[in-house]
Amino acid sequence: MERKITVVSTGEKWDIADLNFQAYRKKPVKVAAYKTVVALDIETLEGTMRANAGDWIIRGVKGELYPCKPDIFEATYQSVDIDPEFIARR
């Protein structure tokens, strides 16, 4: 696998190993999520994306929707107790 990225403005290739990545932890933010049983096309901030059966559809903190593959969802999110009003506000 190539470990290069392309600079959009110039087309220049950068080696990922040369970038100064820092460690961060995702903030504990509650989101609403639904595991779909059918394939769906979802309008996201990045355009139309496909969620396949078994994927999760996440409603973000600003109401935005995006699909998430099951393995990524399981590694990133955990179930929490929330009241129905939280879901209704999303």
Topology at a glance:
Layout: E1 4-6, E2 13-15, E3 32-35, E4 40-44, E5 47-51, E6 56-59, E7 65-68, H1 70-76, H2 84-89
Antiparallel strand pairs: 1-2, 3-6, 4-5, 6-7
Compact overview of the structure:
Helices cover about 15% and strands about 30% of the residues. The chain is an alpha+beta fold.
Tell how many strands the DSSP assignment holds: 7
Low-confidence stretches: none
Spatial strand order of the main sheet: 3-6-7
Report the mean per-residue pLDDT as an integer. 85
Largest sheet: 3 strands, antiparallel
Strand content: 25-35%
Molecular shape: extended
Helical proportion, percent range = 10-25%
Structural class: alpha+beta
Count of DSSP H/I helices: 2
Q: How many angstroms does the end-to-end distance come to?
A: 39 Å
Oligomer: single chain
- List the helices and strands in order: EEEEEEEHH
Computed CA radius of gyration, to the nearest angstrom: 17 Å
What's the domain count?
1
